[in-house]
């Protein structure tokens, strides 16, 4: 018998955590954060307690209480065992968006994480440029005895990193985890390295769409996945439905073409905003800027991600290197803001101390710019500026005749509306948009619309369907004759 326990990702957009059990084999498909679950209890001013976060998540039903699954250091600290043998054989990761991977940081490092090459690179980008721990674990709550015989506390900074067991699979190539055969199939989404899965179990075949669409740069991948589902006599498909109520979608090429025209018509600086790790969107603006005879200015995190991808034999052919002649890398003010100070007083060595370890190497790249370069030559650039770094506009001071292209999802709740209002205040302040707030909105979703999902459902031809990654199960019921809806923590037997 094969069963699936839905610990997240149902009646919700994101937070996928599906436990599949078959003949003693136990694997999770994804282990992501639910923005909805966290938003019920936490905000930017109140989070789970650092010292007690695992227990907090247990109490609120955000994480499942599974002995032997979580890091020993954290589990022991909150009184949840820690010495048990794990019964979980693996985690299959569809992709490296936080709503699918965020809580991997809580898992024991000896539990294998199966993922694509691109997902590993993106998680490395998270690890190296932030505080997340996807590829390594730095133990917390450890004590030691100093040379005076006193008890001291070791910190995550002082403890050496413990590498996780990351197993990179090859797209389309079947592999086995004990009794379960796994087929990872690449699909089109808003970041590289996204895979859907077909699991062949003792009770039949199960497909998990992950997140997919047909309107990006890899639509053929989604087509091949659907075709393979149709060949697999699926007993069950877990089908996403993020935008299942939407009736149409623009394409990634529409974003590129429209942005090209906006850039050509803009007399001064073009500012753009898009998800920082969405390399397909970066490509749209890279090509738009190139077609309009401008440089695309990227931030340091994007430069670091392109550096990682340039080391891949496959992805180096798809995305530009950070040294590409059509790219400039923006160096922001550092911790002491020495970038424009007198280096006779503040040495070059002091300037380098202004930046983190991963940032330092970019200071010597031939294609770096700072705010002075942008301010002086505004007609030459398409400047990437995230919602979290709008302060850079204070130094740049966009000239009259500048424009802003927003390539992020439009707000769908009150919190996002308030945030967008705040962002509009910045662009209105600098005269980039008027009081009528007329910025250019050019965005396409990483998820398919109703017509596209119908193509998936029809082509897969599964005997039964369970909606995931959606709050609109009723649409799936119109598209498939045998839909089974589940609630969080429900168990379904295949």
Architecture overview:
The protein has 16 helices and 24 strands. The chain is α/β, with parallel strands linked by helices and 494 residues long. The protein folds into two domains: 241 residues, 4-Layer Sandwich (Metallo-beta-lactamase, Chain A); 190 residues, Rossmann fold. It is globular and about 70 Å long. The model has no long low-confidence stretch (mean pLDDT 93).
CATH topology of the largest domain: Metallo-beta-lactamase, Chain A
Are there runs of 5+ residues with pLDDT below 50, and where?
none
- Spatial order of the strands in the main sheet? 10-5-4-3-2-1-24
Q: Give the overall pLDDT as a whole number.
A: 93
Question: Helical proportion?
Answer: 25-40%
Task: State the distance separating the first and last CA atoms.
Answer: 7 Å
Instruction: Indicate the CATH architecture of the largest domain.
Output: 4-Layer Sandwich
Q: What portion of residues belong to β-strands?
A: 15-25%
């Amino acid at each position: 018998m094969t069963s699936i326990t839905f610990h997240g990702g149902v009646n919700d957009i994101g937070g996928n955590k599906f436990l599949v059990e078959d003949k003693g084999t136990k694997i999770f498909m994804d282990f992501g954060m639910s923005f909805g679950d966290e938003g019920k209890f936490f905000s930017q001013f109140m989070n789970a307690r650092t010292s007690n976060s695992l227990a907090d998540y247990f109490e609120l039903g955000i994480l499942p209480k599974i002995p032997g699954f979580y890091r020993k250091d954290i589990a022991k600290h909150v009184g949840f065992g820690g010495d048990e043998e794990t019964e979980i054989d693996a985690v299959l990761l569809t992709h490296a968006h936080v709503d699918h991977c965020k809580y991997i940081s809580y898992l024991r490092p000896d539990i294998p994480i199966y993922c694509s090459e691109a997902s590993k690179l993106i998680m490395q980008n998270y690890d190296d440029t932030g505080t997340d721990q996807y590829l390594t674990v730095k133990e917390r709550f450890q004590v030691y005895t100093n040379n005076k015989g006193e008890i001291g506390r070791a910190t995550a900074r002082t403890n050496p990193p413990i590498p996780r067991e990351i197993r990179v699979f090859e797209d389309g190539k079947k592999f086995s985890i004990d009794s379960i055969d796994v087929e990872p199939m690449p699909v089109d989404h808003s970041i590289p390295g996204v895979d859907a899965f077909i699991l062949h179990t003792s009770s039949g075949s199960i497909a998990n769409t992950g997140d997919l669409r047909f309107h990006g740069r890899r639509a053929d991948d989604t087509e091949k996945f659907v075709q393979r589902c149709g060949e697999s006599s699926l007993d069950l498909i877990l089908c996403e439905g993020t935008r299942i109520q939407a009736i149409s979608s623009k394409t990634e090429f529409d974003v590129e073409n429209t942005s090209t025209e906006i850039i050509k018509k803009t007399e001064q600086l073009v500012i753009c905003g898009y998800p920082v790790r969405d390399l397909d969107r970066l490509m749209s603006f890279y090509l738009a800027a190139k077609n309009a005879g401008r440089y695309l200015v990227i931030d340091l995190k994007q430069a670091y991600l392109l550096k990682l991808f340039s080391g891949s034999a496959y992805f180096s052919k798809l995305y530009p290197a950070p040294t590409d002649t059509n790219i400039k890398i923006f160096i922001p003010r550092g911790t002491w803001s020495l970038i424009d100070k007198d280096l006779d007083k503040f040495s070059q060595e002091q300037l380098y101390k202004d930046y983190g370890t991963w940032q330092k190497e970019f200071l010597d790249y031939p294609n770096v710019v700072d705010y002075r370069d942008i301010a002086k030559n505004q007609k030459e650039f398409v400047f990437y500026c995230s919602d979290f770094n709008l302060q850079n506009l204070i130094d740049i001071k966009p000239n009259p005749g500048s424009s802003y292209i927003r390539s992020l999802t439009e707000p769908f709740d009150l919190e996002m509306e308030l945030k967008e209002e705040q962002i509009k205040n910045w662009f209105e302040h600098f005269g980039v948009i008027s009081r009528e707030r007329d910025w250019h909105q050019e965005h396409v979703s990483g998820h398919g619309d109703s017509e596209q999902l119908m193509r998936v459902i029809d082509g897969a031809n599964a005997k039964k369907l369970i909606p995931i990654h959606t709050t609109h199960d009723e649409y799936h019921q119109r598209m498939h004759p045998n839909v089974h809806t589940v609630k969080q923590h429900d168990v379904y037997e295949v």
